Amino acid sequence: MQWYTGTGSWSTPTWTSRMYLNSSGNVGIGSTTPWGKLSVTNTGSGPSFVVEDATSPDSTPFIVDASGNVGIGTTTPATALDFGVGKVITLRTADANNALMQFGQVDGTANTQQIRLGGSDQGNLRIHQAAGGKDWLYLKSDGNVGIGTTSPSQRLSVQGNGLFSGTVTIA
To answer: Torsion angle, CA of 38/42/48/49, rounded to 10 degrees?
Structure first.
């Protein structure tokens, strides 16, 4: 099933397919070959997908622009994921035992760097090189900080050598 719009005269209209529903139930907007339940093909420069409230145009919508950038709280996302100005980002999970928030380069090499919060590190913040087990910084939930160690026993525990330039004060 297809939906068309037309231009021209009644006797010689020019029809353009705008929406298509295939036999699998997939809907195509701007496409006659939808490959997902909803496929949007944008051949222009305007937004591909917008969700907004009753105020139209909304100044804080959820938007996917023609470049594939996603904006939440902004109509002009400048990066792949843009939360706009003054927004607080909260990520939650219902599974407290296996909750993990991880940022990192995932390239399959031994040099994969990660920032981890949760998971096997329950309540601790870890910055490390995943492969090879090189821990750079470890902040335990009790407030102790480890550099080069995942088991700091004092407010600051350093495993390895240190270099200080300037004054070091011990109270």
So the answer is: -20
